[in-house]
Structure prediction request, 424 residues.
Amino acid sequence: MTTVIKAENLSKLYYLGAGKSDSLRDAVMNFVKKPALSKEKHKLWALHDVSFEVKDGETLGIIGNNGAGKSTLLKILSRITKPTTGTAQLKGRVGSLLEVGTGFHNELTGRENIYLNGAILGMKRAEIEKQFDEIVAFSELEKFLDTPVKHYSSGMYMRLAFAVAAHLEPEILIVDEVLAVGDADFQHKCLDKMQAIMNEGRTILFVSHNMSAIMRLCSRAIALKKGKIVQEGATQTVVNEYLGADWGVSAERVWENESEAPQNKVVRLKSVRVIDENGKTAQSLDITRRIGLQTSYEVLQAGHILITAFHIYGRDRQYLFGLQDVMSDWRQRERETGIYTSTVWIPKNFFNEGGFVVDVAISSHVPATRVHVHEGEAVGFEVVDNLTGRTTRGDYQGTIQGFIRPNFEWQTELKQMLKTLNKN
Prediction:
């Protein structure tokens, strides 16, 4: 496959207090101003030695916390700003959808801006007119087409901006986290359009905090932190690493050093994991798949009836529910010394999208309740909806509140067919 984007050692240096603009006016003003303090003390490397390649037809996801350098990277690739060092090579027509305000002239109408953007992309008027009706229909702004865009709301602006960027047939589409401006239905519409562009074999760079969208669209991803690439590879792997680092709670906890493990004279924890249906450790799990919680522990003293339990919390530490091992063959049986593994499976379509943390405990309730070991926030995981399975979401694309989202069985029956009245 042909390489259409090649970034080599991209770095971008800003001076705090000097502004981030690269315009001629600001450059002149910064030159004539006498700096009050040494610039050496106010440097900010928004990007530092970033290198990667994107093949023709590939969709690359770019993730990271606010301030990681994602938007700066896209501005360099879109030729909006220049890198301080390094090079970026792009082959093909580039359509960019960055922050609100980029690419449109506020004094021009929506109609005029469609033609202006097409001209900037190097398209002939006939090519633009060929796509014009589709752009207008997608944006749903026909009534406001001859209104200057300075009177548009941010949502209206982004509707038109995305419609223009997506329909003027760029070979490379660069999209920042601007879909959050639109309503849920329009966000879904945009994701479907990006999917269609991807299926046509065009290249997409997609920045988003929406891990469901990243996993749905992107086969490969990179994670940025403080201007540097910290992870690159298959989307699932990168998302898992990113979520674990972001939380400070990963999907696996192992105590290699026995002296540091939670323990008493009866039992010692060895590990706790969140696993997928294949038994592999997973930080990010599809809402339509089972989720496994697993702990391994060593029974040091025989003769105790032990109960393993997991306690699950929302990301804000709101308690949701507990799971106790009262169903296995070891219920009410005294344990022999040895190493045990206990696993519980949470059904598919149970959790809502979001993040969850898990405490683990091993207790005895006979003859009296006694907690032998307890580890708070032992592991964490994220549930995502890839929008590909049959969930309780159905055709609704808005935000669904709550922590759980069970997909129960329904029955609908036609009890009686009513005759249609004939008025003739």
User: Anything to note?
Assistant: The radius of gyration is 27 Å.
